[in-house]
Design goal:
With 314 residues, the chain is mainly alpha-helical. It is built from 14 helices and two strands, in the order ααααααααααααααββ.
């Protein structure tokens, strides 16, 4: 059963992901704020809808199969641009994919796959193992991430992802409760306070990139990740109903995989001749709309690319 507010939050989240990627070359406060929480947000939202029991085969089709297929397509596209360095391109991409370090933005799928399994099976021991691993990760990562190889870095990053999935499970009752109550003023107050905390912590801890495990101060990273996610979740609760955002949210996985520079669509959109803010707004709109419609078509004709199982979406 889908939760409407979660789909809306995913819709807002993927809009921020696309905008953040478009702002990567210019940076700035908005870019740093988005990067401080946009991926933790998706792990938290996944935790909210994570069932008590999972079918590992279905989960594998939903996350791991697309994770393996999309880098193959991205590698093929990269080879069309750099045919002379095919050995290094293929080698690096295979190593990064197998290690679950991943190629942006597909790394999210592997991290979520590992996190879901860790949290569900960790419940059998009252979460002791995943919580202990997560605490150890927080203690060690701040000092060590600068010297970790990609394979070890991926393990550390997956522990962070698992912590956000677990937090999402704990937040489910909050979201369900406030989505059914008329607590607009209280939610607005929490949202404003969370926004202030989120922006302030992202300014103090700029340059975060969860894919590369560039987290700066781990405590500030956690504060900005959680507070920023609360802002988006609360906004989705206050919106209550938006068919457009729901549609975008339901197709957020496809948009995530299709909009980035590892797929040709990005290069085409970069040809837009406008300058400044207008250029970014038009590029963002095109990336979202085109990725959305391609995603809908892929779900219908090639569902395996987007988590299809036996011809159906999981």
């Amino acid at each position: 059963m889908r939760i409407k507010e979660i789909d809306i939050a995913k819709g807002i989240g993927i809009l921020l992901v696309v905008l953040g990627h478009l702002l990567s070359d210019v940076g700035g406060v908005l870019h740093d704020w988005i990067y401080s929480f946009h991926m933790p947000l998706f792990f938290i939202l996944s935790g909210v809808v994570l069932p008590e029991r999972i079918d590992v085969k279905k989960l594998t089709y939903k996350l791991l199969v697309p994770y393996l297929l999309w880098p193959g397509l991205a590698t093929f596209y990269e080879l069309t641009k750099q045919p002379d360095v095919w050995k290094s391109v293929i080698g690096i991409n295979i190593i990064n994919t197998v290690s679950t370090y991943g190629i942006a933005p597909f790394w999210f799928l592997a991290a979520l796959y590992v996190s879901d399994i860790l949290i569900i099976y960790g419940k059998r021991v009252r979460y002791c193992i995943p919580i202990a691993a997560i605490i150890f990760t927080f203690v060690v990562s701040g000092a060590c991430t600068g010297v970790l190889g990609n394979a070890v870095l991926a393990v550390v990053r997956n522990m962070y992802a698992a912590s956000f999935v677990l937090l999402g499970k704990l937040l489910k009752s909050y979201i369900v409760l406030y989505s059914k109550k008329d607590e607009g003023l209280k939610i607005l107050l929490i949202t404003v306070i969370s926004l202030i905390i989120s922006v302030a912590s992202s300014v103090l801890n700029s340059g975060v990139n969860m894919h590369k495990l560039i987290l700066g101060n781990p405590i500030l990273f956690l504060i900005s990740a959680i507070s920023g996610s609360i802002v988006v979740i609360n906004v989705s609760i206050m919106i209550k109903d938006s068919k457009e955002l729901e549609c975008i949210g339901k197709n957020s996985m496809g948009i995530m995989c299709l909009h980035y520079k590892t797929i040709p669509l990005w290069g085409l959109v970069m040809l837009i001749p406008f300058e400044g803010s207008a250029r970014i707004i038009i590029q963002m709109g095109l990336l979202i709309v085109v990725s959305l419609y391609i995603s809908i078509l892929l779900k219908k004709f090639i569902p395996l690319l987007l988590g299809g199982y036996n011809g159906k979406q999981v």
